[in-house]
Amino acid sequence: MFWNIMKKDLTSDIRALCEENEIHFLLLAEAQAINKTGLETELKTISNDYKLATVIDTAKVFCWHKLNNVRAVKDDNYYSAYVLDDGQEEILIVGIHAPSKIHMESSEQALFITRIIMDIKQLEDQLNITNTMVVGDFNMDPFEAGMVASESFHAIFCDTTARRGSRSVNNQNRRFFFNPMWHLHANRDLPTKGSYYFGNGGIMSYFWHMFDQVIIRPEILDRFNFDSLKIITRIESIGKSLLDANGRPNKTEASDHLPISFSIN
User: Fold this and answer.
1) Is 56 helix (H, G, I), strand (E, B) or coil?
2) 3-class SS shares of the chain: helix, strand, coil, % to 5
3) Using CB atoms within 10 A as the burial measure, which of 60, 102, 209, 260 is most buried?
4) What digits encode the pLDDT tens for the residues 17-58?
5) Helices marked H in 133-227 — which ranges?
6) What would the mean pLDDT of 78-103 be, rounded to a whole number?
């Protein structure tokens, strides 16, 4: 599960979400207000196997998990990377909190992302891992250049095409990511049309955004459980909605972002 918690101490909500959704691997952004060891203690009331994996206090994305073989491999100003050995293979999990549109235009974000994708490729080469997933607050929608351009994440919504692995762009090989979030974006059958809402009086406004996403390399596409992918809007065990009266993320009682969760087989 990933959640941008808006610099709030949402320990009780996080604990409840982890218990009712059977979360094994938790990533939090904007977690400055959380007592890191305090949350670990709360999670241990669910399972004594929960532990804090993040090794530095200034990490951009913090990780707690209840798995046996997880190690932190890199912390950057905009992401934290972990390697999970699940007994079948090693998986590189990158938790990201990309620059906000408050500070960068969409075109600037796309250019900046080229730095991050270079880092990820370098990690994949160093660790000899091709099973990579990137999850977090990208601060971009799935259709923006920073997500789909070949020099950026190159994250596409067609799994058939993604299974090709890569394509040649101006005589340079560019690997694909697959982005399953397209299947949730503006889905009329869901209680929410995205993970983040922002409306303004400008000429262009999308209102709902899918800033919180997971993208995966095609090498682990067959292990991705599509039915498990969801935007969480309610904590059933404590009867708390994460939406306000208008059906938007309740940033007063919770966060301006909604959590997302998924599983791999």
Assistant:
1) coil
2) 25, 30, 45
3) 260
4) 999 999 999 999 999 999 999 999 999 999 999 999 987 888
5) 145-148, 159-162
6) 95
Question: Which pLDDT belongs to residue 57?
Answer: 81
Query: Is 101 buried (19+), middle (13-18) or exposed (0-12) by CB count in 10 A?
Result: middle
Q: What is the mean pLDDT of residues 145-153?
A: 98
121: DSSP letter: H
Structure confidence at residue 260 (pLDDT): 98
Q: How far is CA 63 from CA 190, 216, 217, in A?
A: 28, 18, 21
What is the 3 state secondary structure string of 229-255? EEECCEEHHHCEECECCCCCECCCCCC
Is the confidence at residue 193, as pLDDT, over 80? yes
Q: Which residue has the tokens 């730095």?
A: 115
- Segment (H or E) for 3: strand 2-4
Report the sign of the C-alpha dihedral through residues 16, 22, 28, 34, in that order. Answer: positive
Give the confidence band of 89 by pLDDT, cuts at 50, 70, 90.
Answer: very high
- Residues 75, 56 contacting (CB under 8 angstroms): yes
Instruction: List the one residue out of 241, 260, 261 whose CA is nearest residue 249.
Output: 241
Domain annotation for the chain: domains and CATH numbers: 2-264 (3.60.10.10)
Name residues whose C-beta falls within 8 Å of residue 162's C-beta, 6 or more positions apart in sequence: 156, 176, 177, 178, 218, 221
